[in-house]
Amino acid sequence: MSCDEGAPCYRRRVPEQDRTDPTTRRLLAGSALDVAPWLLGAQLTHATADGTVTVRITEVEAYLGREDPGSHAFRGRTARNATMFGPAGHLYVYFTYGMHYCANIVCGTEGWATGLLLRAGAITEGIELARERRSRPATDLDLARGPARLAQALGLDRTVDGSDALAAPLGLVLPEAAPTVVERGPRVGISGAGGTPEYPWRFWLPGEPTVSRFRPGKQKAARTVDP
Q1: Structural domain that includes position 90
Q2: Which CATH number does the domain housing residue 128 bear?
Q3: Over the stretch 116-155, which tens digit does the pLDDT of each residue have?
Q4: d(Cα 221, Cα 192) in Å, to the nearest integer?
Q5: Is 220 part of a structural domain of the chain?
């Protein structure tokens, strides 16, 4: 068992025999930077006792484990980020700021600890349930604009961390082809080197009104040394 930052205790799921689409699984097993365009336009569904909500993903951010100073796995494996080191296609859900959950699709092969943060999307099914979960925001464009809002609209929390996104009660369906035009730029709200233009690892569909607004992270001031 594990508990993290005030989130409820949970038991990490152990994947059973894989009966999901092998083509999708193989695609997700690539680099997060290569997989990112394929998630744009993908549909993610979560069925619960309250009902079913589906979101069409319009924005993601790639994180590359030990190669990435912006990644939760940059300094190695912990109880919090263990799912990132697992098989591709599973959900890594983390608790942040003592109040929000954010969801990622794990990519790469086991041990890589790479993945894609689901940053924004548009609700395509279950919009009334999504409105209730989000306390009825002023506009439906805000239902899943931002990673915490997206997770809340879908009903995702740490109890589904480690769950297979390709199997019930979840369902990830990729588009038949990756979009031909994709925008990319620095990631949102990342402090330090990982949030600089050297890491243009945020990907989004151009012209989509649900894409979140860019907000730079606080960069550490350069240290000065007296001569």
Answers
A1: 23-204
A2: 3.10.300.10
A3: 999 999 999 999 999 999 999 989 999 999 999 999 999 9
A4: 9
A5: no
**Spatial distance between the Cα atoms of 77 and 73, rounded to a whole number of angstroms:** 6
On whether residue 175 sits in a domain, the answer given is yes
pLDDT exceeds cutoff 80 at 168: yes
Tens-digit pLDDT profile for residues 197-225: 989 999 999 999 999 988 776 655 443 33
Tokens of 169: 């009660």
CA dist 227 and 220 (Å) reads 21
Total count of domains within the chain: 1
Neighbours of 217 (CB within 10 A): 16
- 9 found inside a domain: no
Q: Are 195 and 187 in contact (CB under 8 A)?
A: yes
In the block, tokens 């040394």 appear at 225
Q: Identity (one letter) of the amino acid at 217?
A: G
Closest CA to 93 of 166, 101, 28: 101
The answer to whether residue 192 sits within a structural domain is: yes
